[in-house]
């Protein structure tokens, strides 16, 4: 465990959640290690369940763009009501995290 593990998710803004590193611009698409965001596990899973790396690279390369996306917005509205410790089920997809 790193000291960064617990904190605020940059997408849903819930606090004291376990976070993982998301590459805003996937490395295969020319992203660098600086273009990352710390997201809670449900947010991170949701993004990858909803979108392929190609779609993410094409139009969702910032937290702001993600927050304004219609499908993500609906998810955020829901996740914000969930306690930080809950890891809800995510819709299945063949995309890897
Ligand atoms: Zn989150
Ligand atoms: Zn990711």
UniProtKB/TrEMBL annotation:
Pfam families: HNH (PF01844)
GO molecular function, one term: zinc ion binding
Hydrolase listed as a keyword: yes
Residues making up the signal peptide according to the UniProt record: none
Annotated ranges, domain HNH: 9-49
Keywords: Endonuclease, Hydrolase, Nuclease
Keyword Hydrolase: yes
Gene3D superfamilies: 1.10.30.50
InterPro entries: HNH, HNH_nuc
Protein name: HNH endonuclease
Species assigned in the record: Alkalicoccobacillus porphyridii
């Amino acid at each position: 465990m790193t000291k960064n593990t617990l904190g605020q998710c940059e997408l849903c803004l819930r606090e004291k959640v376990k976070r993982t590193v998301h590459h805003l611009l996937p490395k295969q698409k020319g992203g660098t290690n600086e273009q990352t965001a710390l997201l809670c596990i449900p947010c991170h899973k949701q993004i990858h369940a909803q979108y392929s790396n190609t779609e993410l690279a094409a139009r969702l390369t910032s937290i702001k763009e993600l927050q304004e996306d219609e499908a993500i917005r609906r998810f955020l509205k829901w996740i914000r009501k969930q306690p930080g410790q809950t890891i809800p089920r995510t819709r299945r997809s063949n995309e890897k995290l």
